[in-house]
Design brief:
Length: 789
């Protein structure tokens, strides 16, 4: 309107929140919600397009959520279609880089509705994946990636997202407009048919999921790279312990039954692993050979195995709801210089309800074919089904698909798996394996995310329940050991439980590897390394084992061996951020800051930049190794990049701003960290690490007495003799003393860190800017010049 010669414009008040608000809170949306929001936004845009207007700035901030409906708002840089009248200037690139189509980024004047289709495809991608399809430290990097790369499929990362939906999103985001949906209405129809209005039929993706058999799900493999480390020679039969690899059984049924073949494989492998006299290659090393074209000799050579167990599985559904399974396993002996020979082969046919008996029979026949003695206890173990409830088993397998045998332990994945394990024990309260995995999830969340008394209690109760149900199974003892180590910090009890798990399943690489952290904490360094080396033989592709081995060798200052372990791990998983960080720490420990920075600047492009900078800033506080652009990217991150932990977010940004000389912002973020850590300590008052981090935040705020009090309290709770966490906490106390101008106290605490296994070294001291205020101190100069082996 117009009043007294002044033009005015008003927009309606919308009660609710923006899609950005919801994404900040939840990060990823349920599939049904994401499809509904995208469909409603597409219809709104189609309405605007049919009335001659394109939006040009579709993004989560401009989609409002009110009373269950999505509204497209803020046509602030819109343009009229079909004529030269423009609502804002064109000929320059306007919009938001993460959602801007390639033609819009190039300031093309001939934009049409398909630019909004592209942007909405980006929004739908973010709702499902938890981040935009293309990210980078600058607008130029984001736009360049959008022009030259395809969006990564979501389905391999989130099994609930159908592959067909990935194809729809990819079409909406095609770099060439002609390859996209011709209109927003066509995009909406691809997401879900139905007339306009509230009574929309369910999306075809959701309908399809409801029709799939109860046990169906997509399985995430994770390790698909070539394994370059080779063993020099296969052991000959009869001269070495029998080493068996159970390869993924081939699914001969419909594609949605793929999970079932994996489940049969895993259960057979698990039963064989528990037998004395047989060593079984772990799951993580065997699964990459799924659907391989490699010959048995090649596979056996890469895994160092004498025997391969292969097989096929077909799950047939019959009219009336009944179904049967057909499993055909084959045990093959592979010897150096000889053709593979079949040692045993047999087909099994059974009703689905007897699938656990089939698994037990296969394991028993394989053991006999390998001349493994089976006493009464072993026979009972082989015959014992994990559960009698197929629905509970289905839920358990869904949880396993997410955690991948706990190779994936990030908080978001843990929370997704939690509901499946909870469902499994709700359906069968006697399901011991599910109780054990439920305990591990609670323990992992307690350690990697915000600790709560409820989480600790759930971890303990679930582990105790697993042991009470199956005292002779290893899983419950392993879960209780993890609880003792990660929740209570009681490493003696942890080692006792993990040792019991190892005794019950001596051929299990996971339980072997779990012994090492307990032994390391207790100063049993040689035992820890030996158990990791044994675990690596059983699980040569285990990134976790190789990362632990590299970390321990680094702390022992055995740098060439640590580098070899890193390189073996990176040959398997070149995008593993933990291994890249440990390799950089090897450079730093030897005083090579340039080498570490070059490594960080040349990480594989598949690693999302924001995740990488958050990783290296959170673990080991290496923000000072990042270059200027990476630090600037780090400073843009929200708490969501740190799993919603405002304490970690605040202290990371406080340190980074301090490093860059911005003291006001450093204090502001330190205060945010102070508030968050104080709140977390209400639920975990004996958490030594959080006391120390609270002390660090107080030090940046200049509150000397409180900083020293909290830092010293944290170290008292987790002293230096705790070889895993103790040195790190004492290191942070050194930093606290340095920040509050107590150099002698800082050096008193620093000197012992160079005499125990830890990553600090004279070379590290010479390049770490956190020690700059100590450089003129003669005591520090002597420490920085000392050479340690």
């Amino acid at each position: 309107g117009e009043a007294a010669g002044q033009l005015w414009f008003t927009m309606p008040y919308v009660e609710g929140e923006s899609l950005r608000d919801r994404l900040n809170r939840e990060k990823q949306l349920p599939l049904e919600d994401a499809l509904r929001i995208a469909t409603e936004a597409a219809r709104a845009l189609d309405y605007a397009h049919r009335h001659g207007v394109i939006h040009r700035d579709v993004k989560p901030e401009n989609i409002l959520l009110s009373e269950g409906h999505a509204l497209v708002a803020d046509f602030g840089i819109a343009r009229a279609l079909g004529n030269e009248q423009r609502l804002t200037d064109t000929g320059v690139a306007m919009g938001t880089p993460a959602y801007m189509s390639p033609e819009q980024a190039s300031a093309d004047r001939q934009l049409d509705a398909r630019t909004d289709v592209y942007a909405l495809g980006c929004v739908l991608y973010e709702m499902l994946a938890g981040e935009p399809p293309f990210t980078g430290h600058s607008a130029q990097v984001i736009l360049a990636r959008a022009r030259t790369e395809q969006p990564r499929p979501i389905h391999p990362l989130r099994a609930a997202v159908p592959e067909a939906l990935d194809r729809v999103i990819a079409r909406a985001m095609a770099a060439t407009p002609a390859d996209r949906f011709a209109s927003a209405a066509e995009f909406a129809r691809a997401l879900g048919p139905g007339a306009s209005g509230d009574a929309r039929p369910a999306s075809p993706f959701l309908r399809r999921r409801s029709l799939i058999a109860t046990l169906a799900f997509g399985f995430l493999l994770g390790l698909g790279v070539l394994f370059t480390w080779r063993r020099s020679q296969l052991p000959s039969e009869g001269t070495a312990p029998k080493l068996l690899a159970v390869l993924p059984f081939e699914n001969l049924g419909s594609p949605e039954d793929e999970y079932f073949a994996d489940g049969v494989t895993d259960e057979v492998r698990g039963k064989l692993t528990a037998l004395t006299g047989l060593q079984v290659i772990a799951r993580a090393s065997s699964m990459p050979f799924k659907k391989t074209t490699k010959l048995p000799q090649q596979i056996a050579h890469e895994l160092g195995a004498q025997y391969l167990l292969m097989g096929t599985v077909r799950w047939e559904k019959h009219p009336g709801g009944s179904s049967s399974v057909h499993v055909s396993p084959e045990l093959v002996l592979v010897r150096t210089g000889a053709a593979p020979t079949t040692r045993w082969q047999q087909s099994f046919d059974a009703q689905l309800t007897n699938v656990f008996q089939v698994q037990a029979d296969i394991a028993s026949r394989v053991a006999r074919a390998l001349d493994v003695a089976l006493d009464a206890a072993a026979q009972h173990l082989l015959a014992e089904p994990p559960t009698a409830n197929l629905a509970a088993y289905d839920a358990f397998l869904r949880g396993e698909a997410i955690t991948q045998g706990f190779a994936v332990t990030d908080p978001a994945s843990m929370r997704r798996s939690l509901s499946y394990y909870e469902q499994a024990v709700a359906l069968d309260s006697t399901f011991a394996q599910a109780w054990a995995k439920l305990s591990l999830v609670h323990t992992t969340l307690y350690f990697n995310s915000g600790p709560t008394p409820a989480g600790a209690d759930a971890a303990l109760r679930s582990a105790q329940r697993a042991i009470a149900l199956a005292p002779n199974r290893p899983e419950g003892h392993a879960a209780l050991g993890s609880y003792y180590r990660l929740v209570l910090g009681d490493n003696l009890q942890a080692l006792a439980e993990h040792m019991q798990a190892h005794r019950l399943a001596p051929g299990n690489a996971t339980f072997l590897s779990a012994l090492a952290p307990d032994e390391w904490v207790l100063g049993q360094w040689r035992d820890a390394l030996e158990h990791l080396e044994q675990a690596e033989r059983l699980d040569p592709r285990s990134v976790l084992t190789l990362r632990r081995l590299a970390a321990y060798l680094l702390q022992l200052r055995r740098y060439p061996e640590a580098l070899e372990a890193c390189e073996r791990g990176l040959a398997i998983a070149p995008t593993n951020g933990d291994l890249i960080e440990h390799k950089a720490m090897l450079f730093l420990a030897q005083g090579d800051l340039g080498g570490a920075r070059t490594l960080f600047e040349t990480v594989p492009k598949e690693i999302e930049p924001t995740r990488f900078v958050a990783l290296v800033a959170t673990y080991y506080d290496l923000m000072w190794v990042l270059d200027d652009a990476q630090q600037a990217l780090l400073l843009q991150l929200t708490p969501g990049a740190f799993d919603g932990d405002r304490g970690t977010w605040g202290i990371v940004l406080a340190q980074t701003y301090a490093l860059r000389g911005d003291k006001p912002r450093a204090r502001a973020y330190a205060d945010s960290a102070r508030i968050a850590f104080a709140q977390q300590l209400h639920g975990a008052p004996t958490d030594g690490q959080r006391h120390v981090l609270l002390g660090l935040a107080l030090a940046y705020l200049g509150r000397k007495a409180g900083a020293i009090r909290e830092g010293e309290r944290g170290v008292a709770l987790m002293p230096l003799k705790n070889a895993t966490t103790g040195p790190y906490l004492q290191h942070q106390l050194v930093r606290i003393y340095t920040l509050v101008n107590e150099p002698d106290k800082a050096l008193d605490r620093l000197e012992p860190l160079l005499k125990v296994p830890y990553y600090l070294s004279p070379g590290w001291l010479r390049i770490d800017p956190n020690f700059d205020s100590l450089r003129s101190n003669p005591r520090f100069q002597r420490l920085a010049q000392v050479s340690h082996r």
